[in-house]
């Protein structure tokens, strides 16, 4: 018997998605850093991505980067979240490049790199409206100047991140701004940056629209590769698989029950109010998966199955058309939130198929 719950990752489909995006973006002069943070440092997935032609791997957790390194993944590794001061040692040890916004951290990276007689690459992130990480544009020149003076630090370029905290869309205007800033920095310091990283999966619409890309020569893609959709409107991307990753959960109870609860109704375990629509008797099944394992709101059930509720360890579903005997499995497509939770849950088995 296959273990349940489990997430099945189809490497062939992921490889296809990655190489399709690498190819489409290459024609726009843009390289792809594949973002692995939703895969918990899986070496098998990382190797499929490298094989598909991505130029580097990016992860927000140094622990994932370390795991990939230890497993022999050979690629440039970028830490795409600003390093914690307390982790600068590991950051220099395991990653080649990190995204930064604080000179205090870069100074420490410089010291650690010097101790190890290494060079650590630094990409400075610029704030362009989404109000997550980034140096304010007016302060960038000063930080670049200071970074350039630090020993064992290589100033690799600049980047920005949009659409994550506030949903600010990457467009011709903010991308032109980043490109202009890049021009200005290159002129001021008489250098050529290796990388001008325009953003994440939310940038695809802009990047593939035929718009002027200017100096922007890199995107960091996670969700688009893994789930095959763009992230501004969550529409499938033409020619990509949206079902490379499937979550399976096992039925532990199947009974006909009323659809309407009985008794005095107060809060549920998660403080939600449950809509009490009386649909008469329904075929209700319980799956052995819950909030501890995934984001129940990020699951898409198969045709004819409907999710009715969830608690820490139970997912309640109803199925109109199919019998769901105890011990059978139900497959779900998952969104990015469910994927992150699923991959980081110790209760879920991760299996790769089509290696
Ligand atoms: C997570 C992340 C990405 C990738 O985002 P997707 O929407 O999955 O493409 C890119 N850049 C940074 C800084 C990130 O944290």
Instruction: Tell me how many strands there are.
Output: 16
- Kindly report the CATH topology of the largest domain: TIM Barrel
Average pLDDT score: 96
Classify the helix fraction into a percent range: 25-40%
* Oligomeric state: single chain
Q: Number of helical segments?
A: 10
| H/E element sequence | EHEHEHEHEHEHEHEHEHEEEEEEHE
In the CATH scheme, the class of the largest domain would be: Alpha Beta
Biggest sheet: strands, sense, closure?
A: 8 strands, mixed
Radius of gyration from the alpha-carbon trace, in angstroms? 23 Å
Structural class: alpha/beta
Just name the CATH architecture of the largest domain: Alpha-Beta Barrel
Structural domain tally: 2
Please tell me what the overall shape is. Answer: elongated
Distance between the termini: 20 Å
Explain this structure.
29% of the residues lie in helices and 25% in strands. With 355 residues, it is an alpha/beta fold. It has 2 domains: 10-227, TIM Barrel (Alpha-Beta Barrel), CATH 3.20.20; 245-353, Beta Barrel (Elongation Factor Tu (Ef-tu), domain 3), CATH 2.40.30. Strands 1, 10, 11, 12, 13, 14, 15 and 16 form an 8-stranded mixed sheet that branches. An 8-stranded parallel sheet has the order 8-7-6-5-4-3-2-9. The structure holds pyridoxal-5'-phosphate. The site of pyridoxal-5'-phosphate has 13 residues, from β9 and α9.
């Amino acid at each position: 018997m296959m273990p349940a719950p489990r997430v099945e990752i189809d490497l062939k489909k992921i490889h296809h998605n990655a190489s399709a995006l690498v190819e489409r973006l290459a024609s726009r002069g843009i390289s792809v850093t594949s973002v692995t943070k939703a895969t918990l440092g899986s070496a098998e997935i990382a190797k499929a991505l490298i094989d598909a032609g991505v130029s580097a791997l990016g992860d927000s957790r140094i622990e994932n980067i370390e795991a990939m390194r230890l497993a022999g993944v050979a690629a440039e590794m970028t830490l795409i979240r600003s390093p914690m001061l307390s982790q600068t040692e590991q950051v220099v040890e395991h990653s080649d490049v990190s995204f930064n916004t604080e000179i205090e951290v870069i100074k420490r990276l410089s010291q650690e790199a010097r101790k190890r007689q290494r060079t650590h690459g630094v990409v400075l992130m610029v704030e362009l409206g989404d109000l997550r990480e980034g140096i304010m544009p007016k302060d960038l020149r000063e930080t670049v100047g200071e970074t350039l003076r630090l020993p064992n630090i290589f100033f690799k370029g600049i980047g920005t991140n949009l659409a994550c905290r506030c949903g600010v869309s990457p467009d011709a205007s903010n991308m032109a701004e980043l490109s202009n800033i890049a021009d200005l920095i290159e002129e001021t310091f008489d250098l050529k940056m290796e990388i001008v990283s325009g953003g994440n999966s939310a940038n695809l619409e802009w990047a593939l629209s035929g718009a002027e890309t200017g100096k922007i020569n890199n995107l960091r893609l996670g969700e688009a590769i893994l789930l095959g959709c763009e992230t501004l409107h969550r529409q499938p991307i033409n020619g990509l698989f949206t079902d490379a990753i499937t979550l399976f959960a096992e039925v532990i109870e199947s009974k006909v029950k009323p659809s309407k609860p009985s008794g005095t109704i107060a809060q549920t375990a998660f403080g939600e109010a449950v809509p009490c629509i009386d649909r008469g008797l329904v075929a209700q099944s319980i799956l052995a998966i819950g909030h501890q394992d995934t984001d129940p709101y990020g699951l898409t059930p198969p045709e004819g199955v409907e999710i009715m509720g969830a608690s820490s360890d139970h997912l309640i579903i109803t199925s109109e058309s199919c019998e769901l005997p105890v011990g059978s499995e139900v497959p779900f497509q998952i969104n990015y939130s469910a994927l992150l939770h699923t991959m980081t849950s110790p209760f879920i088995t991760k299996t790769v198929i089509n290696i």
